[in-house]
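User: Can you write out an input/output pair for a complex, sequences first and structure second?

Assistant: Here is one pair. Inputs:
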Amino acid sequence: MPHTLAEKILLAHSDVADLAPGDIVMVRCDLVMANDVSGPVAFRMMEKMGASTVFDPAKIVMVADHFAPAKDARSADLQRQLKEWSDRHGVTYYGQGRGGIEHTVLVEDGWIVPGSVIAGGDSHTCTYGALGAFGSGLGSTDIAACLVFGSFWQTVPATIEVTFTGSKRPFVTGKDLILAVIDAIGVGGGTNTVLEFVGPGAAALSIDERLAVANMAVEAGAETGLFPADEVTAAYLSGRTNRPWQPERSDPDASFARRVRIDLDGVPPLIAQPHSPGNVVPVAEAAGRKIDQVYIGNCANGTITDLRQAASILAGNRVHPDVRAIIVPASQKVYRQALAEGLIDQFVAAGAIVSTPTCGACFGGHMGVLAAGERAVATTNRNFKGRMGSSDAEVYLANAYVAAAAAVAGEIIEPSAVAEGVPA
Amino acid sequence: MILEGAAVVIRQDNIDTDVLYPGSYLNIADPEQMKPYLFEGLDPSLRDQLGRPTILVVGENFGTGSSREHVPHAMLAWGIRCVLGKSFARIFYRNCINLGLPAIVCPEAVDAAEPGVTVRIDTDTGTVHVGDATFQAVPLPSFMRDMLASGGLVDWARRRLAEAG
Ligand code: SF4
């Protein structure tokens, strides 16, 4: 029977002879990940299950990123629990100064290979689809069961094939591609399905941009998002991992729940207005709105590619006096690369602040929380009411060019209007 | 399993877990201590209707967003017996089933429910009574019925560990 890529991965990780959308199967994990928010709750649930040992310490990773560096005593205690638990069970622990945001760190350190299954105690575990891996975002009780048994239950999803044709226009990035997809299918349009990204426009994306696309599959309600592995994937993984992998793709005659086609020649820089990632308009339509904060970072768009894009706008410019610009490299590696390229100096010289890698203000945790009535442009993935602080604040989601341009102009503006002479 | 309670109604679609339980309270791990923050970003006054047996009635794509299990933990701590909705976001739905909080899909019953009305749900047959009216819900797959009957994933795991010795 012909299968989609998602079905092939799930079949290879379960004990059934065959499977089809709607079946419930137990799926084996190649990796289980949790953080300082989901981990400690999972440990409690694991105790309640009466389990004292994990299925395989080599396949478990804990990352302190949400409230790191600790914002208060309670957060510090969560991180201590995470570290103590990791030490006790002999699992890899990424503390401050060693890692960064979980999804970025796992990808750049070679934990993720095409065709693998990752159970993550975080909804953006779908990010690993950039490398053709099935990342399933799970709650803490699910994670507890994964820590003990190395498997989780999964209803086999149908697949929506998303084909990107044409080529990107100036100042358009992976962020705009996924916003275009969410605009096309809606925030619930991917429910019970996997989004599979194919076509020449997908193949042309770097891994950093694929990360941004796969990251927001969950914002369309999808189980996960997948890029079939190709030469770009192979080049990225070479020297990064020893884990074996095989390129896989959907069978040509596999059946899809739906086919969506996005012609990139017609996609301008986009922005998601408050309070939904599905409230998408061209940047031009939101232009002129005054802003108080710009946030460039997070697991979707805190890569070196994003920082280079931001720097291309900020270098030689000044952050508008009414704006706070906060730039957060997603990992220590990204941070060091940005240092080596002189980007951090350009940011600071422009009047931005640069923080250590953290989830921080992305979820309104700390380090850049918004006050009532404030408006921000962020390269993050969610702009729900209250997401970055006060429920009376507004968050606009956009790519790093758009965010950096807004920082300079003090209002939402087309990046082309700020970036005279910047090669896009 | 028969579940009965007074309806607490949230009509809007696409309610996300950030408004159900804001991020700044995620550093709490004890469900009892999560109770004061449930619905905080949506409508804190909804909590005034809790504290007795209740059925939470919700719209489309309820629980979208973060994987934060704090939401169903706080709901259970408040005595919410069941969530009756038009449709659910995937992680929220999983979390409910895993914690033994039934999440039942029945759009017609949602439309019929007014705040305070008695809602009675038979999770085995899928029958939903809203006041005097009766509706038929999408039946749960047997895997999920078993999971709920055994009290959720924790008890399911306990049994599996006991069987393994
Ligand atoms: S950066 Fe934001 S979206 Fe990504 S894992 Fe952290 S809190 Fe979640």
